[in-house]
């Protein structure tokens, strides 16, 4: 015996103590029947549409059940019994309604979309999202252009702050050029196999041996 | 001490990058080149030659007396070099300076120019042999050597009869004329010279070497001289150059990589970085140094070992 059956039995036991009208009893029977049907629902995985309509019916029945309590005065029970019964019914139906709906919702399986639906969604997203054109040079050009622009701006700032000197550096005599010239002259003597003489103002010192003088050649 | 260590380090470093000796292939040497080698070793001649170094420079006239590997050079009375006497053997050159009354004795690098000409042939440097016409009244055979770019490097006009070089023209890397000498007259029948003719024993003259000259110049211009290591580099001359950039000690070295010139100044001189690797300039301890030569890699190592900062 589950809790619903216990509740039903309690209610029915309470009702048997009085003499309700037949109409009221029929209404109550329908309500209980509906509740029993819902409780007896098999553990199946109904389609979502069917489930939605069922939820609506249950909600409607629950709403219909609440007004039934309002008809209780027609059967003229005692005031105390009526008050207690009203309170019980309201509490019961409210509790059962919330409990039942919560149970049903908890029993709903994880509504994970199937692969076809997901695939279609992906396709729609792909179509809606305009793909960006591949621009292979953009990654190179943009930073280069940025650096170049920065360089131009820096050059402009520098040249505006410090005017260029009139004489260019390259126009100045360079000691390295003179060194190269001196070195090449030395190499020329070496390549020629000639001893580089020192340049003195002529000072006659040694007499040439007469027999070696070139006058005899 | 520090200097000696530096010299030792440089010597060890350069020793590993010396050129390998060239194996002689006598069979590959043309007859005119063999005549040349034979004459330079044992020939005897006297003559007058004119030397031109660079374009527009005033020619220098020399009197030459040669006997085998010995040679004596003097200058005519109207020459600014009159009074200087140079005597050379295979390994030693003595240069008399009449102004200072001193004889500078220089140890020569084994690879003389004559030897290098022979090495050109041994190394299979491309050359051509052709009729050279007449020079100093003698029929010549012209031998032209080319550099790897196919440009003329050296051209010799060898006496066809004796092999003696009567004319020589050297070219720079671009193939332009660099220097030349040409004999105006020669006499192969001169009397046999005496050994004393090549001794250069001058009474009261002081005998020094290029290192002494370097130290003297360095002291005069206020710097501490540095030297390249022997036996990789032979100091051939030390001169003081008074340029518009200041006074320099200029040392010329001879080595397997050719001529290397070391410049030193006792002050910091403003310079623009050289465009080629043939010149390295650096400054240290308030002095300016420069190393110039044909082998950039060797120069780099030399300069670093001499103290050039990286």
In short:
Chain A is mainly α and 217 residues long. Chain A has seven helices and no strands.
- Strand coverage percent of chain B: 35-45%
Largest sheet of chain A: none
Q: Give the overall pLDDT of chain A as a whole number.
A: 67
List low-confidence stretches of chain A: 163-170, 200-217
Shape of chain A: rod-shaped
Number of helices of chain B: 5
Structural classification of chain A? mainly alpha
Q: What structural category characterises the helix and strand content of chain B? A: alpha+beta
Strand content of chain A: under 5%
| Main sheet record of chain B | 12 strands, mixed
Please describe the topology of this protein.
The complex is a heterodimer of chains A (217) and B (310).
Chain A: H1 3-16, H2 22-39, H3 48-70, H4 79-107, H5 115-128, H6 138-161, H7 175-192
Chain B: H1 2-15, H2 31-42, E1 44-53, E2 60-67, E3 70-74, E4 85-88, E5 92-97, E6 102-107, H3 113-122, E7 127-135, E8 138-146, E9 152-159, E10 165-171, E11 177-187, E12 206-208, H4 210-221, E13 233-243, E14 246-255, E15 258-265, E16 279-284, E17 287-292, H5 296-305
Parallel strand pairs in B: 6-12
Antiparallel strand pairs in B: 1-2, 1-11, 2-3, 3-4, 4-5, 5-6, 7-8, 8-9, 9-10, 10-11, 13-14, 14-15, 15-17, 16-17
Helix pairs in contact in B: 1-5
Keywords:
heterodimer; A: 217 residues; mainly alpha; 7 helices; 0% strand; disordered C terminus; B: 310 residues; alpha+beta; 12-stranded mixed β-sheet; 5-stranded antiparallel β-sheet; 5 helices; 19% helix; 41% strand; globular
Structure notes:
The complex is a heterodimer of chains A (217) and B (310). Chain A has 217 residues and is an all-alpha fold. In chain A, 65% of the residues lie in helices and 0% in strands. Chain A has helices spanning 3-16, 22-39, 48-70, 79-107, 115-128, 138-161, 175-192. Chain A is rod-shaped. Chain B has helices at 2-15, 31-42, 113-122, 210-221, 296-305; strands at residues 44-53, 60-67, 70-74, 85-88, 92-97, 102-107, 127-135, 138-146, 152-159, 165-171, 177-187, 206-208, 233-243, 246-255, 258-265, 279-284, 287-292. A twelve-stranded mixed beta sheet of chain B has the order 7-8-9-10-11-1-2-3-4-5-6-12. Chain B has a five-stranded antiparallel beta sheet with strand order 13-14-15-17-16, with helices on one face. In chain B, strand 9 (152-159) and strand 10 (165-171) form a beta hairpin. In chain B, helix 1 packs antiparallel against helix 5 (296-305). In chain B, 37% of the residues are buried. The interface between A and B is large, with 42 and 77 residues.
